[in-house]
Write a structure and sequence with these properties.
Elements: H1 10-17, H2 25-35, H3 39-43, H4 46-88, H5 90-107, H6 112-126, H7 129-154
Helix pairs in contact: 4-5, 4-6, 5-6
């Protein structure tokens, strides 16, 4: 209270607390400053002030939660666009994309394991599957031909 410009004795505080003494306007302003509350809140019943504060905090939380959901949707949509672009142009974008992911991961303080996990997730969703299926099929066919060649040589 002294820092708020309204020094008050301990005995006066005790009397105010026990309803044995009323406060002055200066003391009301001092309490407002000391407790960082509005004067109007000091004059209203505690339950009303608490309910009002609870409502305000809840509304702030809900508003931020809604913003977070909207941002999450926008982030997901942006990732889909990025992934689609890398899929369409993977021959030209794969290496720069890999470098961007690495730089981004390092800038955000990720460990090497986190960087690898992020890179794997991003690349797995960005690289088209069809070329890999074709490569797998070609490898299986080459393996089958090789095995056939061994059988022919061994017989």
């Amino acid at each position: 209270m002294e820092e708020a410009g309204c020094p008050i004795q301990a005995s006066a505080l005790y009397k105010i607390e026990k309803s044995g003494r009323r406060i002055t306007v200066d003391e009301l302003l001092g309490f407002s400053a000391a407790f960082e509350l509005r004067v109007a809140d000091l004059l209203r019943p505690r339950e009303v002030v608490m309910s009002s504060r609870l409502t305000s905090l809840f509304e702030t939380w809900e508003s931020l939660r809604q913003e977070s959901i909207a941002l999450s949707r926008r982030q997901s949509e942006a990732f889909k666009k990025l992934s689609h672009f890398v899929q369409e142009h993977h021959a030209d974008t794969l290496e720069p994309f890999f470098q961007m992911v690495t730089a981004w991961s390092e800038e955000n303080g990720s460990t090497e394991a986190e960087t690898e996990a992020i890179r794997s997730i991003l690349l797995a969703t960005s690289v088209p599957v069809e070329p890999f299926k074709k490569m797998e099929q070609e490898a299986l066919e080459a393996l089958a031909r090789e095995r056939e060649g061994r059988r022919d040589d061994g017989e």
